Description:
This protein is α/β, with parallel strands linked by helices. It has helices at residues 84-91, 109-120, 139-151, 171-184, 195-207, 213-218, 222-238, 251-262, 273-277, 288-293, 306-315, 331-334, 354-363, 370-384, 469-482, 507-516; strands spanning 9-18, 23-31, 34-39, 49-52, 57-60, 62-67, 72-73, 76-77, 94-101, 127-133, 156-160, 187-191, 243-245, 267-269, 402-412, 431-441, 444-448, 451-452, 519-522, 525-528, 537-540, 548-551. Strands 1, 2, 3, 4, 5, 15, 16, 17 and 18 form a nine-stranded mixed β-sheet that branches. A hairpin with a 2-residue loop joins strand 16 and strand 17 (444-448). Bound molecules: (2S)-3-(carbamoylamino)-2-methylpropanoic acid (URQ) and zinc ion (2 copies). One zinc ion (ZN) binds next to loops. One zinc ion (ZN) binds at residues 66, 68, 325.
Amino acid sequence: MSGGSSQSRLLVKGGKIVNADQSFVGDVYIEDGIIKQVGKDLAIPGGARVYDASGKLVMPGGIDTHTHMQLPFMGTQAIDDFYTGTKAALAGGTTMILDFVLDQKNVSLIEAYHKWRGWADPKVCCDYSFHVGVTWWSEQVKQEMETLTREHGVNSFKVFMAYKDVFMLRDCDLYEVFQNCRNIGGLAQSHCENGDVIAHESKRMLNLGITGPEGHSLCRPEDVETESVQRAIMIANRVNCPLYVVHVMSKSSADVISKSRKEGKIVFGEPIAACLGTDGTNHWHKCWRHAAGHVMGPPLREDPTTPGYLMGLLANGDLECTGTDNCTFNANQKALGKDDFTRIPNGVNGVEDRMSVIWEKGVATGKMDENRFVAATSTNAAKVFNLYPRKGVIAVGSDADIVVWDPEATRTISAKTHHQAVDFNIFEGMVCHGVTVCTISRGKIVYEEGRFNVAAGDGKFIPRKPFSPYVYNKILKRKETFDPVKVEREPYTGPVVVIGDKPQANEDTKARNLHHNTSIGVGGMHVNLDKDAVHTTTRVSVPPGGKSSFTLY
Ligand code: URQ
Ligand code: ZN
Ligand code: ZN
């Protein structure tokens, strides 16, 4: 075994290797950031650093499918940027984030992409990639989406059915964006809430004097989300486009996704750490900052059984993979909405705590095992977004993105100790089993026992090709039979009415009418009961059988 300088050689020894498909005790030998050997009694060259993982789990590093580092939004900018956000990710066992290029309407997607790259590349501490938000539609957008898939490593595009006049698209545009995604091999992602209803309901709440964070929840209850999930699935299915529903926040929305998947539709649901770990009762907290700190869209649901229900669907595979929608704002930023909840910047934390929260609420409760945990926090995301097997698995040839995990240790989550920049944590005080002992990013130990060994810019942008097999194998097969075919029939050769002419009953109808006595002599008045008669009410005097009044139609 040669090659690779000694400092790039690392042996992770004696741990229990946990992949999505199986667990086994073994060693992992890494050289130049790539896994070269996995197994026991490995023959490795001298000079390799040895990390003793005995008694710990050795898992693929987490992949957070949904973050918004330093997002310019609602008049301010998310406080966790690509440096603090990715550093915190590493501390929590996440070794890759999928963030969003998300610009205003009428801004070129290509220009926005380069702007976001300029923000991220110099700062990221872990590997990352970009989804691109499609906040407007035109021939230019259509072309730029194709260019992004062909030349810039983007294969996923997010549309918004909410944020009216800001990001929101109408159904006609959703149809075209989904159709374009299908044609270029992209995955359509959708923020599913009815933006028109939210706009009206927000005004209604404010008019009722409800200006606090509870108004945010009251103006967009579950069915405002669920209706849009159903609508997005319907539209995507009409054009044979795979759909990924981001931040699935409610039981009823998850049920719609479960049912659609059972019907064979290609739809994936993404719950986030927030809705798996806490709930919307916090919007009614007496402390304004606390309540506002939980404001995001779609809202956390006040049904306290929601987190357990969603975790159950994540465990059984109805829901696919997990993100955090990490989009954080400090108290003074949230306070933009102190007198009007519609101005509270939407977003919560999660990037550092996702793995521990899901371990505590999912594995420690017996809802899922360690292998399903790996699937839900890493492997499935890699497959959906066409990163697999480079990412999401501990296997020869894969990137050495690894988290050494102590399943028995516990930690108490707090803003006082977290590594994120934000001054609030929605999981404050939560005690979680499942703690990151060591994080390895492309073969380098970047976090160990609370200490970092990483610098801004160490992370790399990971391009992703379109037509992910995990997503498109069935879609492409269906394409062969997707389009309906016409019925072969003899042409119609009968009479055709001339538009504008008063339609005349034809000879047959006349004959039939005479036979059925459609008119009666009433009180000296000839009344035609024909169905086209003008709508009127008349009193019939001395009809056969007594007095009556009736309405002609
Ligand atoms: O909608 C999103 O995903 C972005 C704007 C983050 N904010 C949020 O409340 N989800
Ligand atoms: Zn969203
Ligand atoms: Zn988001």
